[in-house]
Amino acid sequence: MAQRPNFKELPIKPSGIIWEDDFVDAEHEQRLLSLFTKELEWPDRPGRISLHYGYTFDYKTFDIDPEIPYKEFPEWLQPLIPPTETRPPDQVCLQYYPPGAGIPPHVDAHAPYDQLYALSLGAPAMMQFRRGEERVEVDLMPRSMMQMTGDSRLHWTHGIKKRKNDTLPDGTIRPRADRWSITYRWLRGGSRRNGVEKEKRSVKALAEKAIGESQGA
Ligand SMILES: O=C(O)CCC(=O)C(=O)O
């Protein structure tokens, strides 16, 4: 497992938020945003929209959807895979949040998935963690990678409020702007579908190559 000296737990409640600033540099981020806006085909509807890679999650069964073929990770995604896990993720979701969009409070405790990471790109947004009456805001700064573990992952909800501005701790009002996130999920106990193993091996080989290159850089 690759060591990331800058991957540190935030000294806040909820515990278990592991964080790395500048997981990608600003130039790399600009290339990604240009690709997202000019080359990818997005669902044509307002609000938060998503593209899935790897397995597709079925929100009815809370499991992977066996009807949707495994979608290989595109080349641009390879260097963005968290190098701290022993194998590449099984499901990756690229989401676009136009200004004012959010995601309702939820816990990613779906049985099939184990690890959860999220990379933020574009404009910052405040994420709110909630447990009972407790509320904690975490500023999702662009280019940061966050891993949710322990309490933050299982015992607090997290969400992004639908609003046009965020209020910072010092009272500053910060307008929302275009934001993208990439979330990464790993199936518990590894891949479960026959027939995709060959594809998955090639994904693993590519990911390992990317990790090797990023370590050598
Ligand atoms: O956009 C994000 O940073 C987080 C998204 C999220 O909470 C999720 O996909 O479960």
Automatic annotation (TrEMBL):
GO terms for biological process: demethylation. PROSITE patterns: FE2OG_OXY. Residues 88-188 form the Fe2OG dioxygenase domain. InterPro entries: AlkB-like, AlkB-like_sf, ALKBH4, Oxoglu/Fe-dep_dioxygenase_dom. It holds the Pfam family 2OG-FeII_Oxy_2. GO terms for molecular function: demethylase activity; oxidoreductase activity. It comes from the Eukaryota. Coiled coil: none annotated. Gene3D superfamilies: Alpha-ketoglutarate-dependent dioxygenase AlkB-like. This is Fe2OG dioxygenase domain-containing protein. It comes from Penicillium argentinense.
